[in-house]
Every structure is written in C-alpha cells, then in structure tokens.
DNA sequence: ATGCCAGTTGTAAACGTTCACATTTGTCAA
DNA sequence: TTGACAAATGTGAACGTTTACAACTGGCAT
C-alpha cells in the first residue's frame, strides 16, 4: 500500500540501512548516497512510518496533556504554550479532558503505560500525592497550574498565596476595607492557598477577618452567582470581592447586575487567571494574570529534558512563574 | 524495561499467540487459558504496547483534528463532541491548531502520510478543493463547520445560508427595518453563505438592500468593533446588526458601549455560533446555535465508518445538522 | 606484498504485536 | 484400532523502522 523504506532503497539502489542513515542525518554517508536517496524519496513521495520508527526507538514523541473538564478557555491557553514549544522540539500533543470524578483520567493514563505517549502533563488531577509519587518513579509526569501538596513531581505553578495577597492588597490600596472572598472549598489546593493569601492581606492591613465574608463552594460557574448573593444580602455587605477564578467573578458580576448592583461603581470585583473573556466583558474584569504561555512552555521544556534520564537525575521540584495584577473596569477606588 | 506479552506468556506458561488471543477476545481459547492469562497480566501489571499492535494492524486508532487558530472556544466545543464519540469507539484524538497561513496545517497533515493517525478532521482549512479531492483518494479526511465549495469530501455543517436567513428574519419579525451586517469577506465560504442568507431575508421582506450597511472584513475580534463604528456613524444607522460570529458580535457590543450606545435597548446585535461566552456577557447575546456536540459526533462517526472501506464505498457527501435561533438580551423589538 | 585504518555500505537482529498456518490433543464413529 | 474432525495451542513470519556488527573498498605506511 504505502511506500516504505524498502521501496526507497530499491529505487535508489542502496540498502535500507543507508536510506535510514540519510533519513536520520547520520555521519558517514556519502554525498552521492544522500543525493540518490533524496531523489528516490521525492519520486516516490515517501514519508517514514512513525509506528515502525517509534517501536524501534522505544519512544513516541507524543506528550499527553490532561485537563479538568470544568473550564476550557483557560487551559487552552496553556496548551497553546505547551504546543508551541513542543512542536519546535518535534513533539506532538494529545489533549484530553478528564471529568471531575477522575475515571477518564485513569483511562487516559493508560496511554503512559502503553507507551503510546512519552510523558504526561496534568493541568489539575484527582490523584493523591502518594499515587503520583509512585507513578513518577516509572514514568515522566508533570503538574501544571495546580500542584499537589506532598507530591515529589515536576510542578510548574504561580505562587497562589502571594498572587492572592497581592490582589487583595491592591483592593485595600484603593481604600476598600470590607472585602469579600468567593472560592472553592479547601480541598482544592489552589483555592486554599489563595484564601490564605487573602487572609494574610486582610490581617496585615489590620482589617477585620469575617467568616461571613467568605463564600466557599466549588469552581463551577454557578457558585459565583450564589456566592455573590450570599455576600451582598448581608446586613453590612462588602464593597469589593476577590474571586479565585475569572469564571466565578463573571458569574458574580452577572448576579450583581441582576440584583441591580453596578459592578465597577458600587461594587468592585476581582478575578483570577486572566482568561480572554476578561477583556470582552462589560465591564472588563480586573484579575491576576497567570502567564499561560510561560507556564506551558516551562513545564513542557522541563518534562522533555527529563525524558530518558535515570530517576535520580530527573528534575522534580516546584517551579514558580511570576503572576501580574491587571486592573480593569470591574474595580474602582472606594469613594467615601 | 516494560513488561511485554512475552513475559505474560512465560508467567502463564502459554505461548504469546494464546495470550494475544485472550487479549483480543478471540474465539477458541479455553476458559483455563483465559484465567491463567488474566492472573499473569494482573500480577505483572501488563498493558499492551500500542506501537507493536498498531504497526502490525496497520492502524493507530488516532484521529487528528486541526482547528484554525483564530477562535478556540467554539472549536473546543466541537472537539469535545468528537472526543466523546471517538472515545467510546476506542479512538483517541490529537488536536492541533494551524495558523492562518496554512503552513502548520501542511506540517500536521504529514501525520496522515506517516500513518501516525488514521484520519483527519479539518475544522476549517486553507486547502483548495482540488487538493482535498486528491488527498481524499488516499486518506480519510473530513471537513466540519466550514465546507469547501467543490470539494468531494465528507462534510458536516449547518446550513449557513438558511441559518443566517432565519436569524435576520427573526430581527425583521421584531420590527427592525434597518439591519446591518458584520462579517468576513467572501473568501470565507461560511461568511459568504451567511451574507447570502442575510440578503435573501432582506429582499424577501421588501426592505432596501444597502451596501453601506454591510461591513466586510475578517473573522478577527477587532473587526467587530471596526464594523460597528463604521455602521453606527452613518447618517442613518441601522437599528439591528447581524454578525457572522459571536466574537464579532461581542466586539461590536463593546464598541457600542464605548460609543455610548446601549445594546439591547437602542441597538440590537445578533451573533452566530452560541459560544459559552454568549450567556456570560452583559447583556447576554442572541445568536444562532450551531449544535457543536452533534457536529462533532456526526463527523467523527461518519469518518470512522469510512475507515478501511475502498474509495468508492466511502461516504463523501455534505451532511447538514440543524441550527437554532436563540434570543437573549442583546436583541429587543424595535419600539416605534 | 602485507597490514592497518578510515570511510562507506550491507546484513540481520531487534522493537512488541497479530495472524495464517501447523501442530497437538481429545472425542467419537466406524 | 483406526481415522476423521473439532478445539486449543504453538510456530514463525510479518508490520517498518533503527542499529550493532560485519564486510568491502582504497590509500598508505611498513
């Protein structure tokens, strides 16, 4: 059917070994042979079969990216960063979304065991630290965006605690004294750490820490609206709200509008991630930028450099990339 | 390193052929053998190597999806639909974004020639009909969302002309008589057909067709704002605008806000696609829904069923899936 | 002449599967 | 006892590569 290296060899009147050498740019092959092979390749329209090659080389040049289903637009930006660098290095990306229960995640991980892929990047995971540690002994694994406490696995993240601290401090700097928090519950490591940063900023400014100013739920869109309603129906509602994701912030802004509260005037709302939608919203939403491209590039770069190294030489640390506060229309100074 | 079928055979005290038979659930294998093999597999933690299997079977169970870079959130919904069905059938998806020039597209198509993937789904392409026809003789290719005129290739799309016609007719039904159009130029087949539908609805209602009410540019976000400004600074501006994509509509809504025009009151704006963002915007945006999930499922289903069939038996037609008009806050009846 | 080296090429064995075919075993009828 | 047949299993050749190793060339010093 398809034209193989054998056909090229026959056409060029050389052995398959020589053709292979030309293909792989190995040394010790004559100019003449290179010429003949290239002509034959062009004539036959040959393109090497990856299955044969990879089977022999015991590698596939494919990296699997698994993203949690919840919110695609943010993860896609990271995947884009991964892809850009990976492509350059001759790797391809398979991306899959797991559902929240983690069953699909398990199914996908089979590709690692299969050797269908050389490594995996998890943009959030339902695996425990212990499991990850075990896996990483035999396979190349990396976490991105969402670390797992106690996992000794290559991890690339922003400093969630510090980022949240900076964001809340910025709100305080604008005069806000009553600042609410909408986030997921503490089982999500990133949300927990962001809440920690929120608390530190509040405490440091000498403001009152109020349990009723914190709405802990999930990362789901709906929780943003629910949280906002909860906070804004208090007797003494906040004047600014920090949300652990842009999606929650947008949902909250919607609910506020519905309640007749104008965000960017009567109420300030801040998000986290800097998804594309932030600039498209009315009002545009203030947020903490995660440098998606950098996150993606960094994690894939380090993962690739781990390939083939014996376990003890692999880089397994946590790498922090810088965040950035971005102020837009959804946040305004408090006018007395 | 990894445990192979040979190890399992040794452990189970059987030949590799029998193990393979158990793995593939073939007939003519004793209960006893099945048991022994399963125990051995569990004990060794074996998982069959896909490279070996696929090399032998001359198939990979992987489908490549190529999407134009421009607008991810819409395409991701389609990919999700594809993935859902493909997964069920034991296929995996590789997704790649091409840039607008098409050079990456060419690079990615190599995976077809390589036999790295069994087939390709193009969510928009820069290939000419002729090229596609040639390719489809040797490989399994499908188009989704964006057809190519004259290409005799499996295509799954909504009826763009009719969908646009329906949308504009809905605006007319609400009393609008001055309706603008923001779209890409006619080289994009879908935009061209949508403009045709727009024109038909206008003509059929006996309204005036005005060249200055049509802003033809690109699918890029920026063109929405530019188009809106163009239309709304006319001496006699439209009261409603139909955009060929939600992104253009959102961009237009932004610009309107900036110009002090309230969309959903003074001006009605309608989009196309029904991306998630439509419901998140303020105002929520009216649109024509493309049934992403159905589009994805349909195209991958038909593609898979083409696999292995001789050329003349392959399904190569155009399949239309139904669209739906969704009215939200960005559109209001014209008050006299 | 002989040996040795470097440069180039070919041969054949892997890589981990599947599958056509051959072989073994057991059952039952003649 | 033999033969025929079915069921279960094994053997070995593919699939398309890469690569260790062997083999063949000249050229050049001995």
Name the descriptors:
12 strands, DNA-binding, alpha/beta, homodimer, 13 helices, six-stranded parallel β-sheet, 336 residues
Biggest sheet architecture of chain A? 6 strands, parallel
Number of helices of chain A: 13
Molecular shape of chain A: elongated
Low-confidence segments of chain A:
none
Helices and strands of chain A, in N-to-C order?
A: HHHHEHEHEHEEHEHEHEHEHEHEE
| Strand coverage percent of chain A | 15-25%
| Quantity of strands of chain A, as a count | 12
Q: Kindly report the average pLDDT value of chain A.
A: 93
What does this entry look like structurally?
The structure is a homodimer of 336-residue chains. With 336 residues, the first copy, chain A, is α/β, with parallel strands linked by helices. The mean pLDDT of chain A is 93. In chain A, the strands form three sheets. A six-stranded parallel beta sheet of chain A has the order 2-1-3-4-5-11, sandwiched between helices. Helices cover 45% and strands 16% of the residues of chain A. The first copy, chain A, is elongated, with a radius of gyration of 26 Å. Chain A binds chain B through residues 1-2, 45, 47-52, 54-55, 58, 60, 62, 72-73, 76, 80, 83, 87, 92-97, 104, 110-111, 113-116, 221, 250-251, 253-254, 257, 276-277, 280-282, and chain B through 1-2, 45, 47-52, 54-55, 58, 60, 62, 72-73, 76, 80, 83, 87, 92-97, 104, 110-111, 113-116, 250-251, 253-254, 257, 276-277, 280-282. Chain A binds a DNA duplex (30 and 30 nucleotides) through residues 2, 4-6, 14-18, 20-21, 23-24, 26, 28-30, 33, 48-58, 115.
